[in-house]
Amino acid sequence: MTLTRVQLARLVDHTLLKPEATLADVRALAAEAQHLGVFAVCVSPSVLTELGDLGGVAKATVCGFPSGKHTSAVKATEAAQAVADGADEVDMVIDFGRLRAGDVQAVREDIEAVRTAMPDTALLKVIIESAALTDEQVVAACEAAEAAGAQFVKTSTGFHPAGGATVHAVELMARTVGDRLGVKASGGIRTWADAVAMVEAGATRLGLSGTRAVLEGGEAGTGY
After folding, report:
1. Catalytic residues (predicted)?
2. pTM for the whole thing?
3. What's the topology of domain 5-215?
4. How confident is the model at residue 217 (pLDDT cuts 50, 70, 90)?
């Protein structure tokens, strides 16, 4: 696959979710996002209001992050508040422990609670933590997300010790949702080759923290 730097940048959620991030870091991320021409920035919900006007760059945040163990009511409230604070997109974490236990219905209801709490104009991505799941569980998570009305499935938080995105997981997720949902690959994508491999596997969005290094063909650090 041949991608230009501009084309790849337009697939990127430029991400800063480190708990130690300062407001200065967030503002620098916002400025860099506009300079790089990315699709969106993704920051913690508490700093959404610090982003200001990003022009054509969308604003994304996280919900139930990073464990997914929050109650559905808390996730729903968090998502609704995030949209009120300016988020165009919300990346929610499922309770993948329940998924691993086979309670797919609970996972679907959790996603539905968040989707219902958000206006139709806001986009919902569902983080399934694919590296911690079997292939069958990945498929079940994607099917639950689609049934619950989400617009995207996403591989990873980037914080789980099992790891981040893999080509295999992205291929499996893309095959499961077809062209009906987007697929976001996130976690551990640190080079141009990594990024292109994910797009070739079916990713329609990339979560990157070291965006500049990736776009310049270098290797990004290990931040999330």
Report:
1. 91 (proton donor/acceptor), 154 (schiff-base intermediate with acetaldehyde), 184 (proton donor/acceptor)
2. 0.96
3. TIM Barrel (3.20.20)
4. confident
